[in-house]
Amino acid sequence: MKVMKILSISNNLLSLNNANGKFCRNYLYSFKDDELASFYISNDIKMENEKIDSFNYSDRDVLRDFLHKKHSIESNQEYGKKEKIVNKQSAFVRVIRYFIWKIAFRKNVNFNKWIENIKPTHIVITVGDNPYLFLLARKLKKIFNSKLIIICGENYSLKKYNYLKCKYHRNLSFLWFQNILRRHTRKTFKDSNLVIFNSNSIKDLYEKKMKFQKSIVVYPLSANRYIDAYDPLNKDIVYAGNLGVGRAEALVNFSNILNDVGNKHKLKVYGKATKEQIELLKKCSNIEYKGIVTNDELIGIINRSWLLLHVESFDKYRKIDLEYAFSTKLSDLISSNDRFFMFAPDCYVESKFFIRYLRTHIALSENELTNVLSELLMQKKPFSFDDNSKLRAIMDINKNGKYIRDLISSL
User: Fold this and answer.
1) What is the pLDDT confidence band of residue 72, given thresholds at 50, 70 and 90?
2) Which long-range contacts (CB under 8 A, 24 or more apart) does 357-364 make?
3) Which residues are within 8 A (CB) of 337 and not within 5 positions of it... i.e. 6 or more apart?
4) C-beta of residue 348 within 8 angstroms of C-beta of residue 232
5) Can you give the pTM of this predicted structure?
6) pLDDT single digits (tens) 335-351
């Protein structure tokens, strides 16, 4: 039997305890922890029970190497949050960051020893907007003669506006940065053995702009196993996930309409939030911000909830920026039970998915939300007569996980 060692290269730790790490881990569901390794650059905290061999190296670390300052880097440690060194909203700093990584990281002795021990047979890179990670993936593919797999749910290199500043105008520094990013994205797609897209829409977009050998479309998957522990006394509406990209504002909008329709239900919000987002949520009497919880804790919360909620922004800019977004959290909602609901405009890929498969579970406007909530609040158990088993079959993680494993094994 062929021995495989898959190296994940991503901004985030390969983990079920953070949204981006969960996105990739679920696609690699059929692979055991000892078949995986994770190289990541974010400030994700590695939990004590997480056994995937990992190496964390941040912007701060590479800057220290560049400046020849002493520091220690170890793999398989529990990492706390590290200080942010670069302003990631600046295109010019992004360009400088790319060149610093390119110069300094190749000399990192600790990583070189770690990767030599891993000897990856396959490299999986999750599409982001760090051009150096694309370069690293190609270099390691060449060194170890590995197969290269791309998991793609983002279109940063193809955006026709300055997404770093949330502006339509692209200045010279942004065009410089995006040119570097597009060049490395294009080369990596061309060099890949397989591209896994999370929707047909984003696959169609990339097919027009880039060349690649082989691709498949698999909707976002969820490895969580839920038990419907409905509690008739529990009136919690639960939102868990990213509060950025205009979602905090959308939650406030939802809560105001909820309050107008009926005040017996609380909206409980879980996830990482900035001070500004927390203050915004606190202004609503029917929102309780609960902070960050582990994936296992979240499963219990979802099991007992009255309704599970996902929202997207109605802001004009966000409608363009997030057109191809398909939230990982939606797969968690759909796999859990039938008590899930979405409030979003019809322009997003995920909205179109709901319109096609789950029309009664989405409100596309404030007026529609008012009408739907009025009906839901009269029900003891929302959507209790729905049967979404056919939809779950499309997103079945066991079937899709085995399909992905067989495909990767045959490369």
Assistant:
1) very low
2) 357/388, 357/391, 357/394, 358/334, 358/388, 358/391, 360/386, 361/386
3) 226, 228, 230, 303, 308
4) no
5) 0.90
6) 777 889 999 999 999 99
Backbone angles phi, psi at 309, to 5 degrees: -125, 140
- Residue 61: CB partners within 8 Å, gap ≥ 6? 71, 73
Q: How many CB atoms lie within 10 A of CB 78?
A: 10
User: How do residues 360-395 score in pLDDT, each as one tens digit?
Assistant: 999 999 999 999 999 998 888 898 888 888 888 888
Please report the pLDDT score of residue 3 as a whole number: 85
Residue 190 CA to residue 401 CA, distance in Å, equals 25
Give me the percent of the chain exceeding a pLDDT of 90. 69
Tokens matching residue 114: 């770690």
Mean pLDDT along residues 126-132 = 96
Task: Tell me the pLDDT band of 77, cut-offs 50, 70 and 90.
Answer: very low
pLDDT above 70 as % of the chain: 94
Quick: pLDDT tens for 144-194: 999 999 999 999 999 999 999 998 999 999 999 999 999 999 999 999 999
Q: Give the contacts of 158 (CB within 8 A, at least 6 positions apart).
A: 182, 205, 206, 209
pLDDT tens-digit readout, 164-175 = 999 899 999 999
- Contact indicator for 268, 238 with CB cutoff of 8 Å: yes
Give the phi and the psi of residue 204 in degrees, each rounded to 5.
-60, -40
User: With 70 as the cut, is the pLDDT of residue 86 above it?
Assistant: no
> How far is it, in rounded angstroms, from Cα 35 to Cα 50?
14
Check residue 291 and give left, alpha or beta (phi > 0: left; psi -120 to 50: alpha).
Answer: left
Burial of 145 (0-12, 13-18, 19+ CB in 10 A): exposed
In 3D, which of 137, 66, 72, 73 has the Cα closest to residue 104?
66
